[in-house]
Fold this protein.
Amino acid sequence: MFPRPITQLSAPIQTLYKIAVPVALFLWLLPLLGVALTSVRPASDLAQGNYFGMPSALAFENYALVFKNTPMLQYMLNSFWVTIPTVIGAITLSCLTGFALAIYRFPSNLIVFFMFVAGNFVPFQILMVPVRDLTLSLGMYNTWYGLALFHIAFQTGFCTLFMRNFIKSLPFELIEAARVEGVAEWRIFWFIVIPLMRPAIAALSVLVFTFIWNDFFWATVLTTSAATQPVTAGLSSLNGQWIAQWHLVSAGSILAALPPVLMFFLMQRHFIAGLTLGAVK
């Protein structure tokens, strides 16, 4: 059922594995290395056709020019305005719905749970026109809070699936003992369940933050101006009208990738603990 450890395979296969892993890692990192080199490449190199060679000089001032000559700072602030409320809203709602679906037994429990899960299987392209029309009718088109509310609605389904399964793995005897002692349901949720869910909340927060920060499709569908566009949609506007400023686009891409990377490394211990909790006894 599970693959055999590499140390148990034959010597030729182990040698092939040791060669294939660095090669695969290099191929996977090659686009990122190309973007990093272009981000410090002078504009004169690009004008002369030096797209893939080594830069003639290291132009670190490209990172300053991104903020000076483009609305990059506004784009990143817009991303924070959309991402942080989405993470807070989706995690809060999913903790409540996950608790209700995992703890309470009612006839339509599975039906409600399947409704939350089913929304994750609907292709976004099918929903593009209805969602755009809905935001227009509500007056939330081209607003950061309209985009955030939309993300909260869609991320809550996935987060509920995660939280419900996590809470069901907790010892139900804790809930029963608290009820015997006469503890109110909301106190059981707040003082017993939530502390046990901290690893799951941390892991899910990192995932949702990364999903929303890197979203491009809905950022381009529901926002149109620099005052509201997140950084993923705003990067495409860093090109000039007549000249493609790839050095600025690459520098902006590196800057845009930093927040989710930093969050992952800051929350790495909690992230791994949340994903592996319950995997072993």
